[in-house]
Write a structure and sequence with these properties.
With 205 residues, the protein is an alpha+beta fold. The protein folds into 2 domains: 108 residues, DNA Primase, Chain A, CATH 3.90.580; 77 residues, no CATH class. It has a 4-stranded antiparallel β-sheet with strand order 1-2-3-4. α1 runs parallel beside α4, α5 packs antiparallel against α6 and α6 runs antiparallel to α7. The radius of gyration is 17 Å and the shape is globular. It starts with 8 loop residues before the first helix and ends in a 5-residue tail after the last helix. The relative contact order is 0.12.
Length: 205
């Protein structure tokens, strides 16, 4: 999803994070004509995805996840946020999609920061970081999400395997939101990471 060359990944990440925080994905989906209810932003919604095959979807194969500002299509085997959606729907580059969203939803251009010149972690770096012990349940869930995003974007596993790991992530997240035992959250998250490592043939540490 991030741009090639020119703009740094740090700046790209800040832009994508701000859009996720300030522009409800469910509203972007509704504005593109997807059969979702934008007034209900705090619960998952299933809808038909037109980004795979011939553009028709006999039954809803995509699911909107309010917590992450993303949706996952089980037919595409892909997770997308608002920027990725605009890129695919309109054939835009990353920054063209960011600029379009900023203009459409009234966000001012993102100011430059000194940190924008620093190198951001690659997908490989994020995968390695995801496999280190977490200091908190939030950290474990964050690492798990980054890991799953990496293997999903890189198409490292068949879509159905990725979907299974995402379903596990959703279960852990639901348990955490229900104020489950913190140590159990970490254990569940790293059990999924371990299974994903096995599927990828990554040696266990």
């Amino acid at each position: 999803m991030f741009p090639e060359g020119g703009a740094t990944l740090s700046r790209a990440k800040r832009a994508a994070d701000r859009i996720r925080e300030e522009i409800p994905l469910i509203q972007v989906l509704a504005d593109y004509g997807y059969d979702v209810e934008p007034r209900v932003q705090d619960r998952e919604q299933q809808f038909r995805c037109d980004l795979h095959g011939d553009g028709s979807d006999g039954k809803p194969s995509a699911r909107y996840y309010p917590d992450g500002g993303q949706f996952f299509c089980f037919a595409c085997g892909s997770s997308r946020d608002a920027v990725a959606l605009v890129q695919e729907k309109e054939g835009k580059s990353f920054w063209e999609a960011v600029s379009l969203l900023e203009a459409r939803y009234g966000l001012p251009p993102l100011p430059w920061q000194a940190s924008d010149d620093k190198r951001e972690p690659t997908v490989a770096d994020q995968v390695k970081a995801a496999l280190r012990p977490a200091e908190s349940p939030e950290g474990a869930l964050s690492r798990l999400e980054r890991f799953l995003m990496g293997i999903t974007q890189e198409r490292s596993l068949p879509p159905e395997r990725c979907a299974g790991f995402w379903e596990g992530y959703d279960r852990v997240g639901a348990y955490f939101r229900a104020e489950g035992d913190p140590s159990k959250v970490i254990e569940m998250a790293y059990r999924i990471l371990g299974s994903a490592k096995d599927a990828l043939g990554i040696p266990q540490e």
